Amino acid sequence: MSTKSLGVGIVGYGFIGRVHAWAHRSLPFFYSPLPCETRLVGVCTSRPETGEAARREAGFEFAVNDPAELLAHPDIDIIHCCTPNDTHADLLIASLRAGKHIYCDKPLTSTLAEARQVAEAVRNVPTIQRMTFHYRFAPATLRAKELIESGFLGELYQFRAAYLHAGYIDPNRPRTWRTVMAKSGGGAIMDLGVHVFDLARFLIGDFDAVNAQLVTRIPSRPDVDTGHPAPVDVDDIAIVHARTKSGAIGIIEASRLATGVQDELRIELHGSKGMIAWNLMDPNYLEVYDARDPEETLGGNRGVKRIECVSRYPKPWSFKTPKNTIGWNQLHAHSLFDFVRAVAEGDTASGPTFADGFAAQAFVHACQKSANIGGVWIPIETT
Questions:
Q1: Helix, strand or coil for residue 297?
Q2: Residues 343 and 128 sit within 8 Å (Cβ to Cβ)
Q3: DSSP H helical ranges for the chain
Q4: What's the gap between Cα 339 and its chain centre?
Q5: Considering only CA atoms, which of 46, 100, 45 is closest in space to residue 76?
Q6: First CA to last CA across the chain, in angstroms?
Q7: C-alpha to C-alpha distance for 106 and 83, rounded to whole angstroms
Q8: Strands 156-164 and 249-255
Q9: pLDDT the model gives residue 322
Q10: What is residue 170's DSSP assignment?
Q11: Residue 1 has pLDDT above 60, yes or no
């Protein structure tokens, strides 16, 4: 393990900020040796009382209410961006100018125009920038990537990918920043769609174009402050037809109104030689079908198989036991571990980088543009 200790500052300490702090605290328990230690130095929240509560809970050395204080602190090497979407661009650009490594929760920004500003600011910057696209870091999805790169699927014909939640089915759930376009930049397509798009792109490559329907089924909600009905101007449901640059076609779906599900991220890939499928609600197994298995009397060995991926990460993962089945938090921990490794090694090439964040932002922009003009095919911008 490197003797260098990386100081960490987390801006925003809502749900996802707490997850990021937990992931830092968990690293020594799961990885041995670590590429370097991390230290929770400072946390920034919008109010003094929440900052002090965060400091006590996670063990930060201090709490502030102005991000500039974290950016100016000499002991902070890494900034975590865990704030509402519309604040990302300014914080990311300021962090880049301050020479900090950055770990940004999705999305990159709230608009494609802001994403372009961040992309320009990143040019020729020597620090490491990563997105928290943690679904890339399940053992099962990493194994899927290996299989695809080995040619297991053959030529990809079609795909289905969906991320479904039910958290907004109650029309009395208050309107917050997540249901205001000016704050969030989008609804289900932004909140959930960027995750499933990134996972699909990670596995099968770049996308070429989309046509989309974005639907708001609950047009008003009680305002979180006043309780009075307030308009919702973001989508509840997104249905997207998408085409990859290789010519495969498929559907990407995101919903906050999928009654009966919890955290359902699923993907199916169908190729000329095989099939691969994974579901976050059954995260320990990767399903595969090899069309090259012979048809035999009574079926032989042909059929869908379940690969037992569980938590079998490569070294320095040190918790290899079947009792430690994989879970959502562990994906965050492994994503963070890989970021810390990249910082320690100066690895600017591996992802998910801000370029991957930009690609997801461009996908959302194309979907919104398509939906606004009747669902026509729209190319996904690359710059």
A1: helix
A2: yes
A3: 15-30, 48-58, 67-71, 88-97, 112-122, 139-149, 181-184, 188-191, 193-204, 328-345, 354-372
A4: 14
A5: 100
A6: 39
A7: 10
A8: parallel
A9: 61
A10: S
A11: no
Domains of the chain: 5-135 (3.40.50.720), 137-349+360-372 (3.30.360.10)
Q: At which residue do the structure tokens 């037809």 appear?
A: 241
Contacts of 187 (CB under 8 A, 6+ apart): 178, 179, 214, 216, 232, 234, 235, 236, 238, 256
Report which of 12, 208, 190, 176 is spatially closest to residue 111, judged by C-alpha positions. Answer: 190
Range 243-253 average pLDDT: 98
With tokens 């109650």, the residue in question is: 170
pLDDT beyond 90 at 308: yes
Judge contact between 219 and 232, C-beta under 8 A.
Answer: yes
Tens-digit pLDDT profile for residues 182-202: 999 999 999 999 999 999 999
Contact of 71 with 79, CB cutoff 8 Å: yes
Give Cβ neighbours of residue 24 (< 8 Å, ≥ 6 apart).
Answer: 8, 38, 40, 336
User: pLDDT digits over 11-41, tens only?
Assistant: 999 999 999 999 999 999 999 999 999 999 9
State the Cα–Cα distance between residues 257 and 171, nearest whole angstrom. Answer: 10
State mean pLDDT over 303-332: 87
CA distance 254 to 210: 14
Q: What share of the chain is helix, strand, coil (3-state, %, to 5)?
A: 35, 25, 40
pLDDT of amino acid 349: 83
CA separation for the pair 69, 242 (Å, rounded):
43
User: Two tokens at 73?
Assistant: 């602190």
Pairing of strands 101-104, 78-81: parallel
Other Cβ atoms less than 10 A from the Cβ of 237: the count is: 20
